[in-house]
Amino acid sequence: MAETKDFPTGAAIVVGGSGGIGRAICERLAFYGSDVALTYRGNEGAAKETAARVEEHGRKATIHQVSVSDAEAVQALFGSVRAQHGGLHTVVHAAGSPIDQPFISQVTPDQWRSVIDADVNGFFNVVYAGLPHLRESGAGSFVYISSAGLKRFPAGDVLSVAPKGAVEALLRGIAKEEGRFGIRANSVALGVIDAGMFPRLVESGELSKEWVDAAKNNAAVRRFGTAEEVAEAVAFLASRRASYITGQTLMLDGGYTL
Questions:
Q1: Among 174, 186, 166, 185, residue whose Cα is nearest residue 115
Q2: What's the pTM?
Q3: Please, what is the end-to-end C-alpha distance for the chain in angstroms?
């Protein structure tokens, strides 16, 4: 396959590609000319629907059921993607644990260990398996979906924010050490995005109208972000258009952290 305008030959792996934000990322990568391998944990139907949308853009899509906590399964994922797509150029990590929102004083050691193992150690499994393949491509990229809470901490969000802080440190290390091999590593730190779990939490009443109104007022642009806006940022950072950008965090938060 000839090289595309924005990406080298091969596929982008989107970990968590069956979710609302992950689906938009898969579609946007396909729109810009990349094949996509997307992972899912349990919702095969959503994964197949996302793959169909990728194929509507004329790109190849494959789906892979995997838990990032399983290091051997992650290794097998990358081998399968290389065999089916001829290589890979990007790893997008858009997966995270479903969490409650306790204050730090209410977090139990079991809760803490569970989230750290799933989100931090899980991401390391992805890095460990993916680095050799990205080195092989000579122009590889990691893009991680992070949180604006790292810059302006929202009370009750430690189980989301703390693991992402560890991953951000790992990303900077990758950018520093692997740049000589053509590998870049960046993140997109999100404010409130009207996609994924957020609409369900609002509908169920877990997020009150007062919380929603306050969150919207905390954003300088007085609205929430969209999955499509996240996808556009991810596709940019993964592409040749961002070839001199590494070790950076793009704040996609509507001005929440100002």
A1: 166
A2: 0.94
A3: 44
Helix (H, G, I), strand (E, B) or coil at 212: helix
DSSP string, 62-77: EEEE--TT-HHHHHHH
Catalogue all structural domains in the chain, each as residue range(s) with its CATH number: 11-252 (3.40.50.720)
Measured CA to CA in angstroms, residue 212 lies from 44, 140, 149 at distances of 31, 38, 16
Distance CA 93, CA 96 (A): 9
Summarised one tens digit per residue, pLDDT across range 91-120 is 999 998 887 788 999 999 999 999 999 999
* CB-CB contact of 250 with 186 (8 Å): yes
At 124 the three-state DSSP class reads: helix
pLDDT of 184-243, one tens digit each?
999 999 999 998 777 777 877 777 888 788 889 999 999 999 999 999 999 999 999 999
What are residue 252's DSSP bridge partners?
190
DSSP-H helix ranges across 4-108: 20-31, 44-56, 71-85
Q: Which residue has the tokens 């007085």?
A: 222
